[in-house]
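Name: CRISPR-associated endonuclease Cas1
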Amino acid sequence: MNPAPGLLPGRLGLAAARIPYADRHGLLYLEYGRLSVEDGTLRFVAAQSETLDAGDYAIPYQVVSMILLGPGTSLTQDVLRLCARHGVLIAAVGEGGVKSYTAPPMGQGRSDVARLHAERWADPGLRLDTARRLYAWRFGRVLPHRDIETLRGIEGARMKESYRLVAQRFGIEWHGRRYDRDNPEAADLPNQAVNHAATFVEAAADIAVAAVGALPPLGFIHEGSSNAFTLDIADLWRVEVTLPLAFASVQAVKSGKGDASIEREVRKRAARLFRQEKLIPKMIDRIKALFDVDDRGGDA
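Structure predicted for CRISPR-associated endonuclease Cas1:
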């Protein structure tokens, strides 16, 4: 295989300016191309896209922990075999990580976070301490309360005010959070936008949880859901990301400067924002901090 311009020759040739491999977690996002194996290494033949120039790229699996396959990608069975053998995770995702369609379980040597997660969830005292840490990150300070229902009530009041303030910032008329699970399209435009934005941020959290090998059903604040812990993590960015994303999209649609479809407008903005803010790597860092994981040796 002839290396693309800018690549060093050999199996380990990686041009950081060309391949979108940028963070220490080893996440690699690929879109619009074909992933295969040649001479024992990964090969990605890419079409021109927003994230990558057209070309033929060698990808050293040794420095990749998780491959995120975005729109327009295909792969050979040899890729699955190689990645499974070397503990590289593969997830099918939406543009920029706004959807998580499928992700594998933990790879070899990735049980540390899962064990810590299970231990803290199983111990009532540690579970409450972990929930309080999550709330402290949301509030920006540690609250003295040790009753989870009291904390939920305080958070509910904070979120109600946050909705009002963010809507006001973007000039959006807000009449409160209303969501009918059986008929989500019946909601007004701002509530529809919040629904879509929340779904996309939850997808990013899904990817982050899978990347570190945490346990999605074991939530510390949310309960009774197969992705309760994912919701715990997504909610850390509700005020910072979800609400501004939703209300900025409503503003664009109403002004005629955005897409006519609120779902498409939120999705396009979310994809750009997740890339720019490196949201998924930030979520991975936060999960590791939650469980006091020292990853200097390359964990997860």
